[in-house]
TrEMBL record:
The lineage of its organism: Bacteria, Bacillati, Bacillota, Bacilli, Bacillales. The keyword DNA repair does not apply. Pfam families: ABC_tran (PF00005). It comes from the Bacteria. Transmembrane segments: none annotated. Keywords: ATP-binding, Nucleotide-binding, Transport. The keyword Nucleotide-binding applies. It comes from Sporolactobacillus mangiferae. GO terms for molecular function: ATP binding. Gene3D superfamilies: P-loop containing nucleotide triphosphate hydrolases (3.40.50.300). Residues 5-230 form the ABC transporter domain. CDD domains: ABC_DR_subfamily_A. This is ABC transporter ATP-binding protein.
Amino acid sequence: MTAVLEVDHLTKKFHDFYLDHIHFSLEKGCITGFIGTNGSGKTTTIKSILGLIHKDDGKIRIFGEDAERNERSIKDRIGFVMDEGYFYENLTLQEMKRVIASAYTRWDEKSFLSYINRFQLNLQQKIAKLSKGMRMKFAVALALSHHADLLIMDEPTSGLDPLVRSELMQILIEFVSEENKSAFFSTHITSDLERIADMLILIDDGKILFEKEKDELLESHVRVKGDNNWINEETRPLFLSLNQSHFGFDGVTNQKNAVLRAIPGAVLERTSIEDVMLAYVGGEKIAD
Ligand SMILES: Nc1ncnc2c1ncn2[C@@H]1O[C@H](COP(=O)(O)OP(=O)(O)OP(=O)(O)O)[C@@H](O)[C@H]1O
């Protein structure tokens, strides 16, 4: 498959954070989820890709072209939605739309109005009066109304109620069902990805820990439960994460066969994206 976006040794240093020569690529026609806990570097990566912050080192190629040298033509083909607002609060939706629409050569007013209808937004309303969910819907309507080939979104579902989140996921599925469309979005709400992601990239403390097909990831990792008697020096290293209580152990492994050989009484369960993510990064369960 062709890569729609290639991040090559991207590096960015803040006072106490280091995006450490990260490297990954997105396949055309896929929805890729960019996951990681708070402060892991998702926004910094996305802003660097979009040229919204200055990177220290590395190369970004989008649609096969150098992103810096071809910024204008590339941005014309990207729809982006950022976590923090980039709207002028005093404008109405209609006025803000005019500002943004003028930046794109393939602006599609009909498509924009259909999203405005679908999301039940009022074009005469002031941006400042929008709720977080309405703001996100407006941003999505703008991002999808200029025939973008790549949608890049930073935490588009955070703070949205389950109904709006589900609607947004449906829109993403519709978007990539068209030929040559791809979507990349960051989230720490991994349940959104169970249904719609094709690929997953995990970042932690400025480093990419894995870049995998979702189905392959969920098949190659299992949750294992059993009696504490089975846990010893030989079996412990077979787990990526392992919790023990007086009821028994509960762990995640990517060595299913070795675990079954070493622990014949083990109970295997399907794992979730969240279990796998936490197994790699450690820490508490993240609430939806
Ligand atoms: N402009 C900045 N100046 C200094 N440090 C920054 C700046 N922007 C981000 N950081 C730091 O870089 C680290 C990564 O932040 P980033 O926003 O990329 O994480 P994130 O994965 O998007 O987190 P979240 O899920 O909380 O949005 C954090 O420690 C943050 O404090």
